[in-house]
UniProtKB/TrEMBL annotation:
CDD domains: EAL (cd01948), GGDEF (cd01949). Residues 258-390 form the GGDEF domain. Residues 399-648 form the EAL domain. Keywords: Membrane, Transmembrane, Transmembrane helix. The keyword Transmembrane applies. GO terms for molecular function: cyclic-guanylate-specific phosphodiesterase activity. Pfam families: EAL, GGDEF. The chain crosses the membrane at residues 37-57, 63-81, 101-122, 152-169, 175-194. This is Histidine kinase.
Amino acid sequence: MSNMLVFRYIRDAFTDPPDIPELTLAQWRALGRQVPLLYAMLVSNSLIVAWTHFSVAPIELTLYVPVILTVLCVVRTGMWWRNRDLAISADKARRSLMTMIWVSTAMAIGFAAWSLSLFPYGDAYQQSQIAFYMGITTIGCMFCLMHVRAAALMVGICVLVPFTIFFAASGQATFVAIAINMVMVIVALLIILLNNNNDFAALVSSRNAVAQRQVETQRLLDENHRLANLDSLTGLPNRRSFDRHLAAALREADLRNGAVAVGRLDFDGFKSVNQIFGQLTGDRVLIEAARRIESLRRPDTVVARLDSNSFALIVQGPVDDAFMARCGETLCDAMRQPFDMPSGPIRLSASAGFAASRPGDSAHSLYDRADYATSAAKREARGRAVVFSERHASEITRVRRMEHLLHTARLEDEIYILVQPQFDVTLGATTGFEVLARWRSPVLGEVSPGEFIPMAERTGQISKITRIVLRQALALGALLPPRLRLSVNLSAHDIGSPTAIEQIVALVGSHGKSCRVDFEITETAVMRDLDQANQSLLALLGLGARIALDDFGTGHSSLTHVQKLPLHRIKIDRSFVMEVTSDPASRAIVKTMVDLCRNLGISCVFEGIETEEQLEALVSLGGRIMQGYLFGRPMLPEDMDEYLAREASLQRLETRAVS
Ligand code: C2E
Ligand code: CA
Ligand code: CA
């Protein structure tokens, strides 16, 4: 067993250089630094010995051999010197170390043989010098070769063995003693060298591990940076990166007294792409859109993806209104080109908004203006580009002021209701009224619900307005003949909030009498959270109320919603009514919707009838319940009596005419 260990120890000692590339390279570099020292010491020590023996030994030994050995040493030093700064491969380093092991062995034998051959010529002093020279030079060489274990070992053995035999055999007690000294020192040295060699290997491997950890850490940092700043779908900078770029671009523009433009590009109705064609196709469209924008941008323009289907640009350099408008139109044109998908081409439009920076602008204020221009484009020029102008600035000021006034308004006093009749053409009578909110502000006067309702939705006051309108509607309902119902509009916020619904239920419940109020909801409200919408509607149905789906045909118009929700009626949007006399497609859609409602057993109300022609067309298509200026404009509740009385007298006249 111990033999085995010794054998393995010796084998390990000689398997040098080891097959670890980093260690081999480290050994090669360390040795390279010591090689000149090694040969310089070897040559000078040898020349001194040659010189002291010059007069006593033959010239072959004191001149020729030392010269040959010196030349060999100089050549070897030259070779190492030439390679010292080269970045060599681990393989080449390994070969070079192997050569060094064999060269060291050969030289050790050569120098040992030369020194011992000089021994017989000298006197006792010179012989002692030989012994000293051999011992000390071997130790020196082994020291210089310490990073290459096998080379140091070979040198030690190749000198020590002949040296010990030679001096032990001399019979001279002093030389035998020197031989023993030499053996002891070299053995000690070998042990130290072997340990040192292991420490060196451990050092290199730990340095290596540290370096590898550093590389890995850097890779993780790069990856983190990429994830934090790039959008993973399109590879474009993300919002965070956009914000940083914009802040930097503004600082830079400030320094050169220039301007920066921000553009936003938003697809119109992108949600339906995901719904109809699936998320994967939606993603492909976005990737292609990103590619198109990228291909159009100037080198110094930054393009980013802000969120699902909205992109943003930072345009540097001179930016005037005409330039921004051109940029915007080019982008919108590019988005209008069909997107070729495996399932077929998809046609889309995108609206863009641009704004240029003004002195003192922050990234936030500039972005807000571009954002406003985009929403203005969506409202007023869908699929086109809008550049932020003074008109928009005054609009914003007006809206802010209005928001402030709405916020500080005494809504209970300032909100009042109007009602608009819903007429059943088959019965020839009004069957109900839609309740419409109005705001009379002491400062602004009458404000249209088209303005203050979306504002109240934004500022979180809508539920309060709903309750005020509902309270007035409940009070009014109590005074009306039982055949008439009132329908109150609910906002998406009401449907989406369990608290708001609870408050509505409590309000209706507190009124006591049987509920004569119905509710109108929009598809957008339902879309947000179908489950919550369903629960809200069930709670309202529990009150005896009925539910109408408002503005049908303008939103997503999903049949699934119509079938899944507990609806009593659908209100067909005014846009279809407007075109029913002129557009055959609208007629066909109206017909389909009438049939659909009949099949589902729900009623269908047409909104916004203004002319006899529209009425006739709708009636011929099967329409029954009508609402619009032709029958009555929204009126004050106090005018209802007069309206109903007029209707009754008309009915009497008609009955009389018929009979
Ligand atoms: P809506 O629910 O679609 O209401 C119908 C709108 O069309 C009303 O506008 C009505 O005055 C108008 N209208 C009715 N007949 C005709 C017609 O023949 N021709 C034309 N051109 N228009 C007609 P209004 O009162 O300005 O309300 C606008 C929108 O404001 C409503 O649209 C509704 O979405 C919202 N709104 C009104 N009151 C309330 C409310 O109390 N709560 C909530 N959440 N929204 C309300
Ligand atoms: Ca309505
Ligand atoms: Ca409507």
